[in-house]
Design goal:
The chain is mostly helical and 79 residues long. The chain is built from four helices and no strands. It is rod-shaped and about 95 Å long.
Length: 79
């Protein structure tokens, strides 16, 4: 048994119809099939957004305070 169908009429600008007709020929489908596919695409539930992937954290090593001091200052500080 076929699903119930509703017949409707839609005015389409001539240039848009020409593109629609050419696309239907390229895809090997009827204009009706192409229109229904477009309507289904518009009415389909939106895909949930993928969570963004956070880049991995890098360990940053800072030079120690002792390495930055002159040799004599490090000895004086150690006392």
């Amino acid at each position: 048994m076929d699903a119930a169908k509703i017949r409707t009429c839609v005015d389409i600008p001539a240039d848009l119809y020409g593109k629609l007709h050419a696309r239907a020929i390229d895809d090997g489908v009827s204009i009706r099939q192409l229109i229904l596919k477009g309507i289904e695409g518009v009415l389909a539930p939106a895909e949930p957004a993928q969570p963004s992937v956070r880049p991995a954290l890098r360990l940053i090593e800072f030079p120690s305070a002792r390495a930055a001091m002159p040799a004599g200052a490090a000895r004086r500080r150690a006392r």
